[in-house]
Each structure stands twice: as structure tokens, then as C-alpha cells.
Amino acid sequence: MLEITDLNVYHGSSRTLKDFSLALNAGEVLCLLGRNGAGKTTALKSIMGLLPAQSGSIRLEGRELTSLRPYEVPKQGIGYVPQGRRLFSELTVQENLDIGLMTRKTGRDVLENALKLFPRLRERLGQVSGTLSGGEQQMLATARALCIDPSVILLDEPTEGLMPSMIATIRDVVLQLRDQGKAILLVEQRVDAVLSVADRVCFVENGKAHPALPVAALRDDPSLLERYVGVS
Amino acid sequence: MDLGPFLVLATLEGLLQAAVLTLIALGLSLVFGVMRIVNVAHGEFYMLGAVIAWFVASLLSLHPAVGFFLALVISPLLVGLVAYASERLILKRLKYDPEATIVATIGMLYVIQQVVLIGFGPDARPVEAPFYYRIRLPWFGYSAYNLFVMAAAVVLLIGCWYILTRTRLGLIMRATQFDSETAQAFGIPVDKVYGYVFAAGAMLAAVAAVLIVPIRQAHYLMGLDPLLLSFIVVIIGGLGSLRGTVVAALIIGLSDGIISVFFSPTLAKMLSTLLVALVLVFKPEGLFGAKAR
After folding, report:
1. Where is the ABC transporter domain (chain A) (predicted)?
2. Is residue A44 part of a domain?
């Protein structure tokens, strides 16, 4: 569904993604794992066109994305939940969701589906989003991305700074979305969260993606985590 | 005349000043709020609006009212076009870098000013008001056109508020203002929004100029004072805040009107500058501005 081939991205003169390649299928959760600064967030931003690719290809169902302007990428059906949520904090919950709905001119039924996953947001529609709790903000960031009715969802550290109950909610939603056939590319630091939700994992090291492994490989060989993430 | 009538006259003059200033400052504030650039050429778009209004009103030789209302349409459109072209050709190429765009807009200020000097000349030129009617107050007569300018400014401000807070266009502009990168990740063409916002800011200044030119006359240096006052207003009100712009323009306009009548215009400017200094020291984000994120 989403195929990245030999992608090279630079920050100034520094090469942050080096011949980065991976393939993401419909109905699966692929998790990018790696140390801080390895290039995981850069990979997601590059897919969204927010960081221009120097060379290489990003294809969504055969359509090349690297030639598109950044604002055209989400219109192809890619939802992005950025690190730190990046809500429009002075807009209300409803207005944040409206921005998502405007992206591909999706209907109210898409909004209803998102609100079914996060019923708490329905009670907060008129509230300024910057005043929500951390967990509610993460729900809103995810719901906003779902409002574009994406076939691919990029989630950048969705459990960062959340309480365990909220982490469980986010995990359940990710699994539901996977079961609906969405392709999910997840950047996650919490190994327990990765083990409970991912189908495959891809280690990212110095801007390079290693071949993806089934998540069972992590359980079978814990030394992989020590080697690539620095935890045992 | 007693003190009371003087005060009424000074307040009316202050309100007129505030009405025009609000429109000009709102344009400046909008551009900074959404694009994060300081447009030093903003006063020249105001001047250009007045000069184009003079050309439209005088060259077409129509009834003053027809000429004025034609100018009210044509002048903002042409100024918007000039602003849009300068944004595409200059600011976009500088990638909206804050320092570079300040230097570039200073350059734009001089280019526009000198081009107008060459084409329009150094003289101040009047534009006829669309109507003459004096309202008889118990102490003096007051121009109904001045009241029309105030009313028009209020209508335009309500229109701006409605667009910004109640429409899809306003939502796009506010989203771009708060986080342009995330806005792009949700399909908002930030680059195009910047072009339109820069043009809209200049058009607001041009509308203000067309409204005031029957009272103040068109002149190639007329953009400098409003630029200074607009900066004072947006710093006090808070850059990017519509409410702050209106409140600060009322404070500055009224104090300028009243102090100028009772004391001197210089003292009015000194007090405005002192107020800016106090705001910068004690509330740098302005009275209604959001704290830096």
C-alpha cells in the first residue's frame, strides 16, 4: 500500500535518511523503533512532504508522493498524528475536527465514526483544545487525522506522557483501525506498547531502516532491543 | 465655547481617527499574525489606496458620489493586486524569513513611495466627498461624512470578525496562524494563504485610505504616520489579535484626538510612545496577544 524506496533526506548538509526503504500493507501496524535522533520522525515528516526528499520514492497504491506539494499529500488519504499532538490549541475541538473534515471534504459520517472511537470528545466539542488534558489532546489529534478518512495513518509517539489507562485506550483504537483495514505506521518508544499492538517492527539506525521483522522476533530475541533501542 | 463642546468635538475627531486606524492596523496585524512578518511597507499600501482613489475620482469625471464608490471598489482591488504580486515576487522568494522580509519591505516602501512621487507628484490632492451634509449639534455643525466613515469602519470590522471566526476561510487563516506546518499536513495550501492574506492586509489599508481621503487629501508621504500609529496599535493590542487591535486603536485614536485638541499633537504622540514602552516592559505580548508558544 505504502512503499518507500531508497529515500534520502537532508537537514542542511546532514543526511538524516539514508536510502531509507520500507513497505506498509493494508490492515497492519508497522512500528518504527530506534534511538532518539535515529530518523523515525524525519521518516514520517518526509512521507507527509514536510521535509523534501533529495532522492528516492514514496508510493501510495502506486501513486508517487514525492512530486506532490506538502498540502496535496494528505488529500491522497494519509492521516498524520504528529509528535506532541500539534493541535491548533486556540481553536475549539470542533474547529480542529473541521480542519480534518475539510482536507478531503469528508462528510459528517466520518466525523461520527471518529467520535464513536473517542466519545469523550463529543462532550468537549465547544472547548478550546489547548485546555484539554494530555490524553484528551491525543484523542483529538488522532480523531482529527481520522476525519480525513485516511487509508494510511502515521502516528508519532501517541503514548508519550500519557497515563496507563489512556495508553490502553489509544492501543485499543489502533487495533480497531487496523481491523478496519487501515495501514498504520507507528513511531513508539514504549516497548510494551509496541509488543501489544505491532504486527511488524522496523529498526531505524542512523537514518537507515533495517528490514522489517515480525513482532514475535522481538520476543524471541530481546537482544535486538538492546542493540537498536538501548533497552533490555 | 465651554469645555463640554470641545470635549465632544475632540471625542468625535478621536473616534474618526480610531476608526481609520483600526482598519489600517488590522491589516498589519493580520499579516503579522498569519505570516509572522513585519510589513514595513504597509503604510505605502494605504498611501497607494488614496492616490488610486484620486486617479479614479478625478480622471473619470463622474458625479463625486459615483467616483468615490467606484474608487472604494477599484482602489483596494488594485492595491491588493500590487501587494499580491510583491508577495509572490519578493517575500515568497525570501521564504518569509523574518529579518530578510523586514529589509525587503523597507525596500518596497521606498520603491512604492518614489514611483508615486514620479507619477503623482509632490502635491497633496483632494478627493471630493460623496456627499456634503452637516449635522447641527447644539454647539457646532459636524460633517455627516465623518460619521459615515466611522459607520463604514464598524461594518467592515464586523465583516472581518465574521470572516475570521465564522467561515471556512477564517478557520483556514487561523489554523495557518497557529501552526503552519500542521496546517499543511491537513491540506491547507499555506503558501497560497500567505499570498491572499498579504493582499487582504493591504486591501484593508487601501479601504481606510479611500474612506479618509476626502478629509485628509492624497499625498505621497501620507503613509508614514499611519504606519507608526499602526505599529503602536498592534504592539499595545497584541499582534494578531482582532479584539486587541480594536481596543488599542480606540485608546490611541481617542487620546490622540482629545490630547491634540486640548494640548498638542506632539504630546499625544509622546504619550502613545510611552504607552508602547510600558506595554513592552510589563506585557510584551500586548493587552490581548497570546504568549509566545
Report:
1. 2-231
2. yes
